[in-house]
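hey so u asked for the seq, here:
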Amino acid sequence: MKEINDILKAYRNALASGKKTALATVVKVEGSSYRQPGARMLVTEDGMLTGAISGGCLEGDALRKALLAIYQKQNKLVTYDTSDESVVEFSVQLGCNGIVHILFEYIDDSYHNNPIKILEKSLESRDASVVVTQFSLSKNTEQKGTVLFYKGIQDSSFENEDLRKSLQEVLHTRTSLIKDFIFDDTEQSVLLQYMPSPVSLLAVGAGNDVKPVVEIADLLGWEVTVADGRMTHATARRFPGAKNVLVSKAEELLSKFKVDERTYVLLMTHNYQYDLEALKLVLKTDCPYIGTLGPRTKLLRMINDLNNEGIILTDQDLNRIYGPIGLDIGAETSEEIALSAISEIKAVMQGRKGTSLRYRTDKIHG
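ran it, structure tokens below
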């Protein structure tokens, strides 16, 4: 999501400067590749690149192809075979042994539904969406490009029922698809890219150890909210990377902030009663992760105190509480603990164990 936001920001800057742009999108991969379908890169006419479509080896040629698309004002599909060892420029540097199909789209600033506008609209709310990019691997075929986004709202304008069903499938499974459809008696390939709602991180606590948590999460493009009862600590100046900084009593926390299924919570106030009250509240929400700072004995005490109040935690509740927070990387300093905690949240988010990739026997990207 951060890559998309960076691209949108770069586009607005280019538009303000009167610069023409093109959008490069990985639409299909055969074999292995550094980036997967949906990866994007914005190119300005003066050669500025935002985003990435590879590990760096394709960007040079992609720049030339994007500039050609801008000059000709025409979409183009380019195929890079990184498995061909005779093509030294790509295969040796990348070493991915895959075929990457990249669509270059000229951005017509005057068109109200150009690819950038579609990406902007898809992110206007916290609802997940599907971005549809139409392309063809056949030569001399018109490349439609990024044509629409879908958020599950019934739309009578859909003429292709198979496409509508596939869009609903992507939203349901939360997994992108590449499928072929028939449009106007012509077969076209379509990338149906699942766009999850933005990641929201609620850091309960505004101590110094929360600062690196906010910095790392902001670097990842997460929407961070810091909440604490102390006016001296919960300030925007102390947390410039936070989207929101709230001064709140624990029992009023959720009246000022909405927690949903894409919200991850860290309890880091160093105030036992505040953390306990916050835990009571977030247990009533759909958040998939609740991390508690401190030793396991603290968490066990909190669970025991909840039981004494008649709040009995279910297995589902216990499975989403992580205490102590973080992956076991030997973290000691605040920065290391922040890295450990954010990494654990990312692993939970992706349904991974957080172990070394050297032990993974299947593909890195499912």
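The chain has eleven helices and 15 strands. Confidence is low (pLDDT under 50) at residues 88-94.
lmk if thats what u needed
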